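Contributing new records

If you add data, match the layout below exactly. Sequence lines come first and carry their own label; structure lines follow with theirs. Keep one chain per record. Anything else will be rejected by the validation script.
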Amino acid sequence: ARVVGTTHGPSPAGHAPRRGHRADEVRSTRAVDPAPRTGEDEDVSSYVAPPPGDLSGDPYAPFRPRWGTAVAYTAAVVILAGCTFVALVATGPGTDSGWNKAATIGVGAFCALILWRLGQVRATVTPERLTVHNIVFTRRLEWAEVLSVRFGPGDPWVRLDLSDGKALAVMGIQRADGARRSENEAARLAALVQALGEAPEG
């Protein structure tokens, strides 16, 4: 995906942009030129533009890491099963204590819970809103709240610039899935922001 700035601007014919575009309208979204930026915000290389052609597949498909999800779920099962096995079959001083057995299983369950939450990270999209599920928090955004999409060469996941001046990580798009896949997913999100992120006038 070509990396430039993504901005919200007026519609070509002076009409107010419409929200809730159909999927075929999102697929035909084109890249736009970056808005001038100054000072510390002049990090143009991290801003993502929509792809210069049509989007393939379903533009509203969830954004979900491929390898991160599989690794997290597998590790959760292995750790919980391992701790349970050790608690039940270990022998030696103190191993016959019910408290020690419960504590060992509890540690495994806690680690499995964290890994399960890690496997749940994703971003779901509809024509009305974007919902970002990260490890701890879930945030629901109207498209007009998202100003731009960033994904610099050293970024582990996508970041959104929001209208309240804050940034939000989207861990559902991770560079660990490979440069091509992660950048294509970032470009798809940028296309959705451009197509659906305009607040109606009036």
